[in-house]
Design a protein that fits this description.
- Helices cover 72% and strands 0% of the residues.
- It is built from six helices and no strands.
- The N and C termini lie far apart (45 Å).
């Protein structure tokens, strides 16, 4: 409620847009989160994470449609929309996108390094292994 009142007060003070205060040079992930916080401050937001979840599903469908149509420009646009929607879902779920992405990066790296060790232990060369073999190793890393 305080954030909403703050944004409304700023608009009354002569700002032409609630988004005026979002720095141009922020990293894209941080900027997406900040934009969504700002517009939420004036009431343009989902009631809860479920609306954002549905939007992610809708955007994913649009990504699939653009990919199947072979529309590379449309695909890029839809991928951007999907990422933006995922940031919104993350925010509404109570997390910050940079935090959850950093954790996902660490988890992936740890699992992949474990996959590499399993491959070495089995005498496999990753670059020469099929995706099926690599996926089997990947599943082993998830269960350990």
């Amino acid at each position: 409620e305080v954030k909403k009142n703050w944004e409304k007060l700023k608009l009354k003070e002569g700002k032409s847009s609630v988004l005026e205060g979002v720095p141009i040079h922020l990293p894209a992930l941080v900027k997406a989160n900040r934009i969504q916080e700002k517009v939420a401050g004036v009431g343009f937001d989902w009631e809860n994470h479920l609306g954002a979840r549905d939007k992610v599903a809708e955007e994913l469908d649009e990504v699939t449609q653009a990919a199947e149509a072979g529309d590379s420009a449309g695909l890029e646009e839809e991928l951007g929309d999907l990422l933006f929607a995922a940031v919104n879902l993350t925010r509404l779920a109570g997390s910050h996108p940079t935090t959850v992405l950093a954790r996902a990066n660490m988890k992936f790296r740890s699992r992949f390094e474990h996959l590499e060790k399993l491959a070495r232990d089995d005498g496999l060369i990753i670059e020469e292994s099929s995706l099926e073999v690599l996926n089997t190793l990947w599943e082993k890393t998830k269960s350990s």
